[in-house]
Amino acid sequence: MADFRVQTALIYHFCRLRLPNLALSEDVFTRRLEENLQRLLTKTRKDSAANNPDRSQLLQNLYPLDWFLACACLERLAPAWEMLFRTRANRTDILLIDALRARAVRLYPRQPERQEESVTDFWGYLLVGQREGSPPILARYDGQRPLVPWLLCVYQNKELSHLRRERGEVALPEDEVGEADLYLPQDSDAHWHEQFREAAREWFAELNDQEVLLLGLRLRYKLSQREVARILGIHEGNVTRKIDAVSKRCHERIGQSLRELGWTGEDLFGFIRKEMYSVLLEEPRLSVDRLAALLAAKGKTMPAES
């Protein structure tokens, strides 16, 4: 326990040195960190496939500055929110707020007022729970991944839930918030990220329009297989088989490319799954307008317009 307290204190003072404008107290930082680690340990113990890390391992995997910033935002420190607004989107030169606006344009094409409203409301959404009495959304950030990709995923899932409710469909499960953009420390090496993106673009270019539609409806709109089958007018079993076939080719093609480039790490398929989500969100063929055109060619409409 003494070593744990020493580790925690070192992390806190490191963050204070790097972020001197964020006057977050050590007591608050330590309390939030201990609560978060306890949630993580409880979650991994329930997961039979997990490696059941201990507290020291979780601390080693912590993104300390991102975690410190999130804690300061939860404490409603104005300099923290100003810093968050100025944060650069992961692996790009655009600001976080501009990355959110770019996603809003894809979700709500030709609706500028709704685009701006969705981004403006997002900041307040982070400070409230989805249900009365539940913790703030931002409090779910566990520090085991970079903050910005997690926020982009939370925004994406929040707006998809709104679109689904407007169509009279069930909103996304509450526990999906932020889960799809899981970047683990051992997976975040910039070299392999770029190699992956290149292999993924080559694989995606080989997909036919029907396969693009399936991915768009399942991954971008997160429709169920039954909903996809109804929209495309095919049997639900065909949706399952086609998605499985696309997924298998994806893993085989991209996995082979990465191994040929020298990949020697563990859990290659896990890495592909985690990285693929962000790549597909930026893929031009999965934009709202392109998917709408593919559906229109079949006499169908976009899910948000049904």
For the CA atoms, what is the radius of gyration?
21 Å
Indicate the low-confidence ranges by residue numbers: 178-188
- Please tally the helical runs, counting DSSP H or I stretches of 4 or more residues: 14
| Arithmetic mean pLDDT | 80
Tally of structural domains: 2
Inertia-based shape: globular
Q: What's the SSE pattern?
A: HHHHHHHHHHHHHH
How far the N terminus sits from the C terminus, by CA atoms, comes to: 57 Å
Provide the β-strand percentage band: under 5%
Structural class based on helices, strands and sheet pairing: mainly alpha
Number of strands: 0
Helix content: 55-70%
Please outline the major beta sheet: none
Overview of the molecule:
The chain is about 65% helix and about 0% strand. The longest helix is centred in the last third of the chain and has 25 residues, at about 235-260. With about 300 residues, the chain is mainly alpha-helical.
Q: Would you spell out the secondary-structure blueprint of this structure?
A:
Elements: H1 2-18, H2 26-46, H3 55-60, H4 64-74, H5 78-86, H6 96-107, H7 112-125, H8 147-166, H9 190-205, H10 209-220, H11 225-232, H12 236-260, H13 268-282, H14 288-296
Helix pairs in contact: 1-2, 4-5, 6-7, 6-8, 9-12, 9-13, 11-12
How is this structure best summarized?
This protein has 14 helices and no strands. With 306 residues, the protein is an all-alpha fold.
Features:
mainly alpha; 2 domains; globular; 14 helices; 306 residues
